[in-house]
Amino acid sequence: MIMVVFGHLITFCGIGYDNPMIETIILINMPLFLFLNGIVARKLSITNWGGYLRTKFKQIMIPFFIWGGIITLFRHETYLNFITHYWKFGYWYLLVLFEFYILLCIINILYSKLKNLLSTHLANITLIIMIATGYFATRALGQFIPQNISAIIDYYQFLDYYPYFTIGFLIRQFDITEYLKKYQNIAISSLIIVASVGYLLWNYGYRPEFSVFLVRLSIVLLFLVLFMSFDSEQGQGNILSRCMNNLGFIGRHTLAIYMIQYFFFPYINLSDLYNYLLLTSNSLALVAVTIVCAVAICYLCIAIEKIFDQSWYLRFLIGK
């Protein structure tokens, strides 16, 4: 969440899209975000998938429509422009996440039928093949979807982040995190090598789409293993423990931060400071300033969420 706000500060309040800082952060922030959503998704044990989707609709889509209306008024736009906007004025993530939960329910129904016909081992292999086939089928469908419809349903974002969400989900489904914890040194070394190879392939123009995916996935998994390593090593009361607790606190308020953050950016102007730091080759200072601002915005959003918590009607706005 801090990385997402970090990227938005540079883009909306600083130096725009055309800079190495943004090129670096967009390589990883949303793939990691959707991957983590897959990690925390429920395992394939949903018996009442209709009720599950209703709950997710309340948590995700009602805030999407309501906050979409609020941001539309804030931007002096029309609601039609919000619905048809490629990025949904920033709220595309909510729609795509709900679409992933629909996908999860479809997978759940198919998997439950597979388990009745096949052994667990074969059912799991078939599940992986089914998810991979679904990705390529979704890619193939793109040529038949009109541009205006693809913008409304955020087809391209769905396609871009499909692999990361489903890989996160599969890691949770098969308890692969336990193996990553057990063999974390081997995992970290292997992922650094894979990321380096992917970067070299990308740099030399070899199948750029696959090379970028390789780099992104290896870095995403590296983040996961490193944070699991930090979490298992932390002691009570030390600096690492406090940092992890603060990160966890921010993480638990992700949805509210994501929805509220956009209302701060029009009132923040860091372009002069950023340009000065870049001209004086102080990139590390730029990163430090932006991280501090991003964390401050996260906590401001959490404070606003606490105010919303005082009323049932306001809690409804943030999916509670």
Descriptive account of the structure:
The structure is a single chain. The chain is 78% helix and 0% strand. The protein has helices at residues 2-15, 20-25, 29-39, 49-74, 79-84, 92-117, 120-141, 147-153, 155-173, 176-182, 184-203, 208-233, 239-251, 254-260, 271-279, 283-308, 312-317. The longest helix is centred in the N-terminal third of the chain and has 26 residues, at 49-74. It is globular, with a radius of gyration of 21 Å.
How do the strands and helices of this protein lay out in sequence?
Blueprint: H1 2-15, H2 20-25, H3 29-39, H4 49-74, H5 79-84, H6 92-117, H7 120-141, H8 147-153, H9 155-173, H10 176-182, H11 184-203, H12 208-233, H13 239-251, H14 254-260, H15 271-279, H16 283-308, H17 312-317
Helix pairs in contact: 1-15, 1-16, 3-9, 4-6, 6-7, 6-9, 7-9, 11-12
Largest sheet: none
Mean pLDDT: 89
Order of helices and strands: HHHHHHHHHHHHHHHHH
- Could you give the count of β-strands? 0
Quote the distance from N terminus to C terminus: 19 Å
Total of DSSP H or I helical runs spanning 4+ residues: 17
- The gyration radius over C-alpha positions equals 21 Å
Helix proportion? over 70%
How much strand? Answer: under 5%
Judged by helices, strands and strand pairing, the structural class is: mainly alpha
- Global morphology: globular
